[in-house]
Design brief:
Radius of gyration: 27 Å
Helix content: 55-70%
CATH class of the largest domain: Mainly Alpha
Number of strands: 5
Shape: elongated
Oligomer: single chain
Strand content: 5-15%
Mean pLDDT: 81
Largest sheet: 5 strands, antiparallel
Number of domains: 2
CATH architecture of the largest domain: Up-down Bundle
Order of helices and strands: HEEEEEHHHHHHHHH
Length: 379
Amino acid sequence: MKRFFIYLIIFICVFLSMKLSAYSHNSFENTENTQLGKVINVEFVDNNIQGSKISQLKQIVTLQILSGEFKNEIIDVENIITGTPAYDLITKKGDKLILHEETKDGESEFFISDIQRAPFMLVLVGLFALLLIIVGRKKGLCSLLAIFITCFLIVSCLTPLIVNRINPILATMLICIVSTAITMYLVGGINYKSTAAFLGTIVSIFFALILSVITVYFAHITGFSNESCTFLYSSHPEINLQHIAISAILLATLGAIMDIAMSISSAINEFSVINEVLSIKELFKSGMNVGKDIIGTMANTLILVYLGGALPLVLLSDNIDFQKFLNLNQIVTEISAALIGSITLLICVPITAIISATLIKMKKTTNSDIILANKEDLL
């Protein structure tokens, strides 16, 4: 019955996400039309710019189209080499490329958009899934399903909601609540332990929301932290990028909060099973002791994740005045996100500990009363 309840929730989430995806279809009418192509031959030639002494190298790439209306056709495409690694795509025979298709006067023209990288990502995903199932067995399979559902919710629910002008913060909080419920009850089962972890996570994420709003306001964070934000603004200027920045912080923090909440709740539940006479205060103290050991490494993990993502900016500190560097919008955004995540982890420990101790002790008391009542009836 419990598993049926979980599967019913999953089915509802999938159904709603499909409806949202269909509803948001009109928002993506201008999406680029791309095809897949395979490089058959590459020829390097000089590209002399008319009226200038500047000479650029370019590739004449012979491609076989692998998808779409022109599948199996052979075409030649120019690929200009500017000498800037950020923009140049040096192709070679056998490469598979993403081709941008443009239609002018009823004729299609193709341009090289990018190199196909997704297949290797699938290898990494497969390796991760395999190891998760081998190490975690049934729990690992449930965790894998929870991860899939969370990603599905973000892509198929959160994105359409935001694009269709639903407040990004409200949409993100909704996804966080649904994702947390599915993850906790799918992995931990429907019990007091999972409920305590769920409540601890939700209370903590609301705290992170308040702290994020305050930080964005007082630190004057604009939301334009990278090129993706600029592209998003050019495509959807109606979206508030400050709200997107807050949503990004909440999503990045959620995973760590769920981890620590379940760890503490599970530990307190085990303490209660081993020693049923422990009081709420004693269970809370035991949970705090476990939490103290977890938060040190977990907070360090969050800081390193954000620093790793901002490493190119950190390296620029040698070329920029230190005071200016510390006040860059990108730097302040990354530092704020890391600190908000770490502070929320610290808050999550006592919140989850007190909720777990109270709920689990309440469960034990209720069970004891039922057993006592049954004994009296027998007498």
